[in-house]
Amino acid sequence: MSGRDTVLGRIRRALADVPRTERPEDVQVTRDYLRVHGARTPERTADLLATNLADYRALVHRCSAGEPAELIARLLAQRGSASVLVPDGLPPEWMAAVRGPVRITDRAASTPQELDAVDSVVTGCAVAIAETGTIVLDGGPAQGRRRITLVPDHHICVVRVPEQVVDSVPQGLERLDPSRPLTWISGPSATSDIELDRVEGVHGPRTLEVVLVTE
């Protein structure tokens, strides 16, 4: 018996007592699961986000509202970035201290090869989820097209705390428009598909740096 036969057999047995005329909407499903796992202050929620991001091997930096420009400039310098992609709507004050790298705009005409040549990209985000250590982008202001955060090898993402940070996935979903192009990021891109060897940078940036700006 194949694995397919085994799975289909289990499905048939599970559905054996279900009337053939029954439709999914005929059965009320109880959805009384927890929306949030524990009570937290905004400060503890931000701490949990930082911890879970670090567990996913993202590099986490924290600063106050007046400091992101200097921090971003330092991160780009440490990386040795000669070019940085800046999407429309990125607050200009975030890049005010950046002097060296050539700034590249987010263009629909950019080819994958051109994006691959970009050293770094700096974006904002739509929401950050503490319990899962997840950053969500929706293509809104300061985020740009989805591909600009998937092709370049280095992504700096700025998260405003506490405005953009929620505890749980249900809370995050309430802030998102499902019709927008959503990108869910939990750490740098990685896969262990081949012999369980972790390889980073396969489906996105090899290095993710998250700047938590406390407002």
Automatic annotation (TrEMBL):
Domain of life: Bacteria
Pfam families listed in its UniProt record: LUD_dom
Domain LUD: start-end pairs: 113-213
SUPFAM superfamilies in UniProt: NagB/RpiA/CoA transferase-like (SSF100950)
Leader sequence segment: none
Matches recorded under InterPro entries: FTHF_cligase-like_sf, LUD_dom, NagB/RpiA_transferase-like
Gene3D superfamilies according to UniProt: NagB/RpiA/CoA transferase-like
UniProt protein name: L-lactate dehydrogenase complex protein LldG
